[in-house]
TrEMBL record:
Residues 5-128 form the Putative oxidoreductase/dehydrogenase Rossmann-like domain. It comes from the Bacteria. Residues 145-270 form the DUF2520 domain. It comes from Streptomyces lavendofoliae. The lineage of its organism: Bacteria, Bacillati, Actinomycetota, Actinomycetes, Kitasatosporales. Pfam families: DUF2520, Rossmann-like. Residues 296-318 are annotated as: Disordered. This is Oxidoreductase.
Length: 318
């Protein structure tokens, strides 16, 4: 006997307000599920190109006209623009009773849609935990992608069904937890891009011709180990307590890439704290290391911690 299937929403006319990297990809995924994109709004040339590539034949119209034509409206604008957009659409009478209004912001739940809800809209917050390129590859990447879902209880099944139709996996996030949820994703994904880009730049300076090829296997293994084992996957000089090596790193970064020093020190301090807390960094090795990390001023041409009592500053408040 087949297992009962997830309830499927009726086939809907879909509109997109904000043709950035996310909206056209989600609308294209909904089209594959049988829904019908009918209108999209976009201002920049890049937005118009994305809409034409991912939603061919779908007319570009102003936001109010998107709402006139669509039963399901995707609001895919930057987080800071979302409250004003919702307020403006509600005040101008663009919102229709019974219309599904979906935003894709990780920061907000459904409360940001309250002006539209008072006008009769059905509010959903569906945030794909994925990075987007603005190309067709994004539609494929939605397969198995987790979505942070927040919705009124009576719309929960509809919200989850839409996510499943786009190829995603719904993950319920309470309204009050949305900012923390979004901060966690930004910490992992956005900062990862910065770290990798900096690492590739430094490798090029060191003479590595193909830093992406060198980093690919290493970072892939590190990510896999971290997802499987958490802090137990920590390796490297900070987790080992190699204060002299860390001091040498700081000196080299000051010489060749001073803009990276603050980030290196911040991440090294955090790594040291976590390694200590999980028993990976031996306390007897931590003192010199914390001295190196205290303010990043330790010389690399002598023993770690020789600029003063080892760890004198770094131990305060620990």
């Amino acid at each position: 006997m087949n297992a009962p299937s997830q309830p499927r929403p009726a086939r809907l006319a879909v509109g997109v307000v904000g043709a950035g990297r996310v909206g056209p990809a989600l609308a294209a995924a909904l089209r594959l599920a049988g829904h019908r994109p009918v209108a999209v709004s976009g201002v920049s040339d890049a937005s118009r190109r994305r809409a034409a590539a991912l939603l061919p034949g779908v007319p570009l119209v102003p936001p109010a006209q998107v709402l006139q034509r669509a039963e399901l409206v995707l609001l895919t604008v930057p987080d800071d623009a979302l409250p004003g957009l919702v307020q403006g659409l509600a005040e101008t009478g663009a919102v229709r009773p019974g219309q599904l209004l979906v935003h894709t912001s990780g920061r907000y739940g459904t409360a940001v849609l309250d002006p539209a809800r008072r006008a009769g809209a059905l509010p959903l917050a569906l945030h794909p935990a994925m990075t987007f390129t603005g190309t067709s590859v994004d539609v494929d990447r939605l397969a198995g992608c987790s979505f942070g879902v927040t919705a009124p209880e009576e719309l929960r099944l509809a919200a989850e069904a839409l996510v499943i139709e786009m190829g995603g996996e719904p993950e319920w996030i309470e309204e009050a937890a949305r900012p923390l949820y979004h901060a966690a994703l930004a910490l992992g994904a956005n900062h990862l891009v910065t770290l990798v880009a900096q690492s590739m730049e430094l490798l090029r300076q060191a003479g590595v011709a193909a830093p992406d090829r060198m980093l690919g296997p290493l970072l892939g293994a590190a990510l896999d180990n971290a997802l499987r084992s958490g802090d137990a996957a920590l390796t490297g000089p900070v987790a080992r307590g190699d204060a002299g090596t860390v001091a040498a790193h700081v000196a080299e970064l000051r010489k060749h890439a001073p803009a990276t020093v603050a980030g290196y020190l911040a991440m090294a301090r955090t790594t040291a704290d976590r390694a200590l807390a999980h028993g990976l960094l031996k306390p007897e090795l931590a003192e010199d290391l914390l001295g190196v990390l205290a303010d990043g001023s330790t010389r690399a041409d002598g023993p770690a911690g020789t600029d003063g009592p080892a760890g004198a500053e770094g131990d305060s408040g620990r």
